[in-house]
Amino acid sequence: MRILIYSYNYYPEPIGIAPLMTELAEGLARRGHEVHVSTAMPSYPESEIYPEYRGKLYTRERLNGISLARCYVWSRTERNFRNRVFFELSFIFLSFWQCLRTPCPDLIFLTIPGLPVCLPGVILSKIYRRPLVLNVQDILPDAAIHVGLITNPQLINILRKLERFAYNNADKISVITESFQNNLLKKGVPENKLVEISNWVDINFIKPREKTDSNFRQENNLKDKFIVLYSGNIALTQGLENLIEAGKYLKAIEQIVIVIVGEKKAIAQLKLQAEAKKLNNILLLPFQPREKLPDMLGSADIGLVMQKHNVINFNMPSKIQLLLASGCPIIASVPALGTAALAVEKSQGGVVVPPENPQALAQAIKDLYHQPDILKKLGENGRKYAENYYSFEKVLDRYEELFKSLVNQREN
Predict the structure, then answer these.
(1) What predicted TM-score, i.e. pTM, was given to this entire model?
(2) Is the CB of residue 7 less than 8 Å from the CB of residue 110?
(3) Are the beta carbons of 330 and 349 closer than 8 angstroms?
């Protein structure tokens, strides 16, 4: 098949959707499919276009068997409504014209977020008369509304209409959790349009490691420490200030160190908070190169998943699969009825504590610190679950089957 993957994010961006779309594209290419990717100049998570891509309107390259087309986007470090609108508009228009120069695909695979990209995706699907698969990684605009990013009623109404337009014009919609499927069913999306395919992890790349062999520990003077790791996006939905606050209740145990890895600007803000509380048990680091990810995850004694109380069924942290595959026990400070809590509980690879409750989070860390046997069992459970349910090759089988069925339907 000739497949067009339409995504804002792709390699070399280190976290979030970019690694997922990169692995999917390269996995399909290894199986003999012709894969074209339309994406933006890389800018995530710093919101600055990477130096080697600056000053260019379009680029084309061949990377690991993938035909990769990038376009300029309006990306600014100041995150406000105006800059977001210009970001969306620049990608919509510039990527659309570049896609018209791409060979006609057999199928278009478009990932959300962001929501506005459904407009060029649908138009291309109509022009080419090819099936469109919508891959929903976050439920938008629910996520932005619930955390207070969008409050204007008129704008909410516009985004709701855009959401319906996307669902109505997709041939199939792949969702990553059952709760996402339930959300869309309540919005009137026909059940026969929906297919649940979880996100994945490369269990041969991310796997348990001996902590004594950890370069990450040695490089950061953490050789004999008990590492509690948070690595990933730091935004309104996470509430990382609660993790800083939890550090107060862990000061008495000198062995415990909270390590937070994230985007430089957000790290700088957290550093100010930690300094104001005079905490010396918190280590703040910038994002690590992807090739160092297995070592970093494998070095942790506990991996954290953080969400605020109002993040229920519209967001599923991709770090859960990574932590489980690494054999790292999870403490999930998340809503009890949310998608993240359900995933952690199903895996039996971690524990769930109330969100935005620093004392409860600190107590859970202390409990596992004092119970190494339970800690070990959680890690083993998580790895086994990742092997059985999140293996990349198994998920790739399902996507390939879905794509072939849609292409065959069209040809018949």
Answers:
(1) 0.91
(2) yes
(3) yes
Give the burial string for 29-59 (b: 16+ CB within 10 Å, else e). beeebbbbbbbbbbbbbbeebeeebeeeeee
- Residue the block writes with tokens 């919005």: 187
Helix (H) or strand (E) holding 401: helix 392-411
> What's the pLDDT score for residue 363?
98
Q: Are 356 and 309 in contact (CB under 8 A)?
A: yes
What is the predicted pLDDT for the residue at 211?
87
User: Per DSSP, what are the bridge partners of residue 172?
Assistant: 133
Rounded to whole angstroms, the Cα distance separating 4 from 22 reads 13
CA 134/CA 121 separation, integer angstroms: 9
Query: What pLDDT score does 236 carry?
Result: 67
Tokens 């107590």 belong to residue: 363
The answer to whether residue 253 scores a pLDDT higher than 80 is: yes
User: Edge-to-edge strands of the sheet including 256-262?
Assistant: 282-286, 256-262, 226-231, 302-306, 330-333, 350-353
End-to-end C-alpha distance for the chain, whole angstroms: 15
Q: Where are the beta strands (DSSP E) in 87-192?
A: 107-112, 132-136, 172-175
Please provide the DSSP assignment of 249-310 as one string: GGTT-TTEEEEEEE-HHHHHHHHHHHHHTT--SEEEEEPPPGGGHHHHHHH-SEEEEE--TT
Tell me the DSSP string of 62-75: EETTEEEEEE----
Query: What's the one-letter identity of residue 103?
Result: P
Mind listing the pLDDT tens digit for each residue in 318-366?
899 999 999 999 999 999 988 999 999 999 999 999 999 999 999 999 9
